[in-house]
Amino acid sequence: MPPPLQDSVALVTGASRGIGRAVACALAALGAHCVLTARSPGGLEETDDLVRTAGGAGCTLLPLDLEDGAALDGIGPSLASRFGRLDILVHAAATLGALTPVPHATDRDFARSLAVNATASWRLIRTTSPLLLASPAGRAVFLTDAHARSPVAYWGLLGAGKAAMENLVLSWADEVASHRRLRVNLFDPGAVATRLRAQAMPGEDASGLPRPEAVADAVVALCLPGSARHADLVTPATTSTHPDRPTRA
Questions:
Q1: Domain boundaries, the chain
Q2: C-alpha 24: how far from chain center
Q3: What is 9-234's CATH topology?
Q4: Which of 22, 91, 133, 226 would you label with 217, given CA atoms 20 to 30 Å apart?
Q5: Member of which family (predicted)?
Q6: Under a CB-based contact definition with an 8 Å cutoff, are residues 216 and 22 in contact?
């Protein structure tokens, strides 16, 4: 029996480490050809090595900075030219930004947080939407953070960027709800032992936190052709929807 994602093409951002890397490996194990993006070419090569070591056919590596709008805008046309399709988008990349009082944030801190956590999501939606809509089972998953919904002192930059991203993603999900074949969801992994978490909580004992691989399966489940979830905020431990939004079958 062929793997469930055989012949599909998946784009994974932030794939050089952490949850993005774990998701890419899991998707590849199910037969997807993964196109991996991140700023670090070396990190992407390490992810590709893991895929190949596990028996996968290897990935397409696309090093880029999410602040580079022109590079992001070119992803859709490039995928169309090379593969003629895109079936899965997992946007796992993010930046912590500065943990600082709001009045102390610099112009650069604010601009980068919005560029990476919000504007990049909009550009990815815009450039990949035609291909995802054309897929027989298009799937898009955007990783988010609880600070988008629960503002906390010093986390304003991350929260603002992710809140904007959530609004964009759920608005898009509502716009394509009648399409039926394309499913769009948010995924909040919670506290996970990643480098971003270590940057935010440098004194924390991370030994008790779940590893990225522990939450990757929940992301991948949203990418499978049989998944009917749409316009939801999903976590590893719950099936509840985004507050005040109905589940769309």
A1: 9-234
A2: 10
A3: Rossmann fold (3.40.50)
A4: 133
A5: Belongs to the short-chain dehydrogenases/reductases (SDR) family.
A6: yes
